[in-house]
Amino acid sequence: MLKNKKKRQIFKTIFTTATILIVFTGLYKMYQNIEITDNYSAEKTRVPTISEQNVENIHEKSVSTADMIENVSKSVCGISKLSNAGGSILSTATETELGLGTGIIVSNDGYILSNSHVTGEKFSTCYVTIEDKDTYTGTVVWSDSVLDLSLTKIKANNLISASIGNSEKIRVGETVYAIGNPIGYQFRRTVTSGIISALDRTIKLQENDEDVYMSDLIQTDATINPGNSGGPLVNTKGEIIGVNSVKITSAEGIGFSIPIDVIKPVINSFTTNGSFEEANLGLFVYDESVSKYLNLKNRFSSGIYIAQIVKGGPADGKGLKEGDIIIKIDDKYLNTINDLRQYIYTKKPRDKVVLNVNKGKYTKDIEIALGRK
Predict the structure, then answer these.
(1) What predicted TM-score, i.e. pTM, was given to this entire model?
(2) 73, 117, 150, 324: which one is catalytic?
(3) Domain 71-273 CATH assignment equals 2.40.10.120
(4) Given its phi and psi angles, is residue 152 left (phi above 0), alpha (psi -120 to 50 degrees) or beta?
C-alpha cells in the first residue's frame, strides 16, 4: 500500500516538472519572436495610405503628360498659303482664304505632314513657321485631295521630328490629345484632350459642287477648330496616331482624324529615298461604310465595291466590271478604302498584284500590273 502511494507521488512530481518545462520553453520561444520597434523606426517604415498613394500617382501622371505634350509640341509647326498671312483673330480673312493650318515635322531634314486643303496640291508653295520664329518656303511634294493629306519639303536640318505611332490597334475610349493652331498662329500649339469616340467613321462632304466621302476616320471629342487642320492626334505615349482634318460645325464635340497608318509608306519612301513613285490600280471603289450613302447594284458587308473602271487604266480589260467585290489583294483582306490605299502605297508602278474578286456566283483571281498615277 505504502509502496503504491510512493509510486504515485513520484509520478506526480515528474508530471508537474515536465509540464513546467514545457510551459517555460513555449514562453521563451514566444519571447524570441517578438520584434521591439521604437517610434523612430516605425515612422520610417510607415506605409502610405491609399489616399496618399493616389495623390502621388495623380501628380506623377500630370507631370508625365505635361512632359509628353511639351516634347510632341516641338514637332508641331504653322502653315500658311500666304507669306504674310499673319495669325490675328481680328483679321477679316477666313482660315480657308489665308490657308492657316498646322503641320507635323516627320523628319529632321524637313518633311512636313499636313492636310491637302491646308498646303495645296502637289508643287504648290506654302510657308512653314517653326519654333515661333523661323519661316521657310515649302514645296508640296505629294498631295491627295480625297485623302486630304500632303507632304511638304522645306530646306532645313536638325529639326525635331514626331514619333509616329500605330493607328491599327487603337480602341474606343482611349485618351488622346489634339495639338494645333486654332484661329491662326497667334494661338499656336493649343492642346485639347478627349477620347477616341468611334472608329471607321465615314462622312459626306461637298467639294466643288460634288459629293466627297472621307472614310475610315477616327472620331474624337477633343476640340478641333479650323486652324487645327493638319495637326497631330496624339496618344498617351506621345505618338502620332492621326492627322486632324475636318469638323462637323453643326455638332459640338465631334472632330475627325485620318489614321496615320495609311500615310506611313509615303513618309517612309520620301524620308528614305527622297521620292515616291505612286502606283495606280485604275479603279474607283467604295467600302461598306460609303455604300450606305449610295444606291449600289450589289449589297455587301466586307470587301471593296468596284464603282468604275478607268478606261485605258491598268484594270481595264482584265475581266472586272462594276459591282464586283474585291475580297483581298495578294494576301491582304480588304474592308476599308484605306486598307487598299495603304497596300498600293507600298508598291511601285509595274509591280504585279493579284485581286481576289467576288463576281456574284463565283470568285476569281485576277492579276494586274500597276500603273503610274
Answers:
(1) 0.76
(2) 117
(3) yes
(4) beta
